[in-house]
Amino acid sequence: MGYVTVRGGEEAIQAAEALFRELVPSPPDRFLKALERHLPFLLDRVMAEGGLWAPALAAEALAQAGGDLYEAVLLLRAYRTTLPRLGEAVRAGREDLLLLRRISAAFKGIPGGQVLGPTLDYSLRLLGLRASATLTPAEAPAPKTYPSVAGWLRGRGLLEEALGEGKGSIPDLTRQPLRFPAPRAHRLQALARGDTGGLLALAYSGMRAYNAHRHPTVAELGVGYLPVRLHHPVRGGSVEVGRVRLAFAEIVDRGERGYRLGFGASLGWNEVRPIAAAMLDLEMDRSSHPARQEEFVLLHTDPVEASGFALHYKLPHYVTFLSNLKAAEEVEDAPVEV
């Protein structure tokens, strides 16, 4: 049986796009505003995986993609590449984060106290439940910053080693290719914009002790706003140009010389992402199974790379398939040598 290639053209492609736009029309502006107001966690995920903090653009990308999360992330990353680089932000630390929420599973009485913040972690999860709560204003304003739990552990010599980025310049994963072994900054940047589901799946394999028997603990999980500061070109010093929402997690596990620390942070408010990233960061230097190998984890959790590669299979492969078909037919028709 012969194989006949399918022929198409520009008109067919334009008609297919027109049909999609007819079925999924562009929503009005008020819908985009409603997305920002009512689905902040979804937009936060798009911005985190897209590597760009822009709530209005994330809402537009999500609407343009008809709710396709990977398509929205792709649109946002593609847009980011068109933006000029105006400067480099002043390096910020944990002490600069204006925390809305910080909890610890390691110590009940952490320095500064635990702050539950806005969360449904301790509420009933019932479909249709829309009970409204009454807020009572606090008698005193909450502190702007809280001491770091990891810093408290480090100060007492309980951490196996202090992990940090050093004093040099920070390499940028958006401009430099990922090579292995990756600098720690590249590793954390890759985890920060990795696919939430991919990070969770790989971290979960370690959480449920697949090929391992360890149970790390969340030393601190925090959500807050990080001021973005730039060097002022005229008067010197730094000036705050905005704030991004950020979530981070620090995981500790008992090592040979004390507690080992894993760190994960990401744009937006999605606590699963930094927990999973910190778990992977903690275990990635071990090679006892694929989820602990840096190259395996970082190369297979990029949402744009992974979804793009999967979707490329939809594109024409007529030449390669026909070549394989002919090769198989030649083998079948070849005379049998005795």
Annotation, overall tally of beta strands = 4
Q: Which structural category fits the helices and strands?
A: alpha+beta
The biggest beta sheet reads: 4 strands, antiparallel
The shape is globular
Strand order of the largest sheet: 1-2-3-4
Radius of gyration from CA coordinates: 25 Å
Overall pLDDT, averaged? 86
What distance lies between the first and last C-alpha atoms, to the nearest angstrom? 28 Å
What is the H/E string? Answer: HHHHHEHHHEEEHHHH
Description:
There is one protein chain. By secondary structure, this protein is α+β, with helices and mostly antiparallel strands. 38% of the residues lie in helices and 14% in strands. The chain has 12 helices and 4 strands; from the N terminus they run H-H-H-H-H-E-H-H-H-E-E-E-H-H-H-H. The protein has helices spanning 10-23, 29-38, 40-50, 55-64, 69-80, 149-155, 184-192, 196-207, 272-283, 294-299, 303-311, 318-333; strands at 98-103, 217-231, 238-254, 259-267. The protein has a 4-stranded antiparallel beta sheet with strand order 1-2-3-4. Strand 3 (238-254) and strand 4 (259-267) form a beta hairpin. The radius of gyration is 25 Å and the shape is globular. The model has no long low-confidence stretch (mean pLDDT 86).
